[in-house]
Amino acid sequence: MNWITNYVRPKIRALVTKPDVPENLWEKCPSCSQMIFHRELESNLRVCPHCGYHMRISARRRLEMLFDEGAFKTIELPEVPLDPLRFRDRKRYTDRLREAQAKNDGDEAIIVAHGTLGGHPTVIAVFNFAFMGGSMGIAVGEGLLAAARLAALQEAALIVIPASGGARMQEGILSLMQMPRSVAAVEIVKEAGLPYIVVLTDPTTGGVSASFAMLGDVALAEPGAIIGFAGQRVIEETIRESLPDGFQRAEYLLEHGMVDMVVTRAEMRETLARILGLLRDKVPSAEVVTLPVGDEGAPEDEPEPEIPPLPAEEGSDVRT
Q1: Residue ranges of the chain assigned to CATH 3.90.226.10
Q2: What are phi and psi of 117, to 5 degrees?
């Protein structure tokens, strides 16, 4: 009996039982449909190694990727009313907020952190698309204002990385008011004479693209990112025309002068550090040597050229 229990039964169970394989070991690329091992994908910063498609990345992972040695400090966002309109559709707005907070590392769709980037003091406000589509409500507007004030206080550059579908419908007109408030946040930084850089990621649409996202001193974008106000289908139905290929993609906007550079995720930190160095370093990059007048090696004064006399006209009393 022991032989059947200890040997035969486990063999039979092993034949008929499927092994427990974690479901998140492989991920399918939305662009080329290739299966990618999760460790390879994470080591490649969630960029497909086959086609270069840039998948969405968490807000904290992006902060670790940009700050020097991945070290940064986050700030606590100002308190705001949770449900000012007592909104309810299929669920209460407060229930949606609790679900989003439980699934994400953060209480809102924006995280504000400060540290150094390329040795320069920097404040970064990054959106988390996984939190209700990165929608911009009162808390996001307060977060952008807090980031701008912190940058002005620390005399640091401000980098904003939006990933949003636009305004948050559950807050109605109050969410739309965050558009001018975010513009006011940008003005705080610019009046202080500090750099304001925007890194446009997929997607940057709606009221976000119509406000602070297009006001950067330098506008960068990730490859293939959707950037625009209304969706392509809505535009086509409105104007009753087909839009060109690649419309609202980062590369299309680069060709038409809407963004300054399209930068891959692997090169983003180095590019931002170089831009900050150009904007913030006051020391000339090369040594300037000046020679005092009169010392050896100084260029001698060249003699003034002789001016020939003017020829006399006929009938004139002028004689040379």
Answers
A1: 56-280
A2: -135, 115
Distance of CA 40 to the CA centre of its chain: 23
In whole angstroms, how far apart are CA 43 and each of 39, 47, 306? 6, 9, 74
Q: Is residue 238 within a helix (H) or strand (E), and if so which, with residue range?
A: helix 232-239
Q: Given pLDDT bands bounded at 50, 70 and 90, which one contains residue 156?
A: very high
DSSP symbols for 208-222: HHTTGGG--SEEEE-
Tell me the residue ranges of DSSP E strands in 192-302. Answer: 196-200, 218-221, 261-262
The 10s digit of each residue's pLDDT in 253-272 is: 999 999 999 999 999 999 99
| Class of domain 56-280 as given by CATH | alpha beta
Q: Which amino acid is at 146?
A: A
Contact call for residues 54 and 46 (beta carbons, < 8 A): yes
The residue among 104, 91, 123, 109 whose CA lies nearest residue 175 is 109
Task: Report the pLDDT value the prediction gives residue 320, as an integer from 0 to 100.
Answer: 46
Tokens of 9: 């039964």
Phi-psi region at 8: left, alpha or beta (left = phi > 0; alpha = psi -120 to 50):
alpha
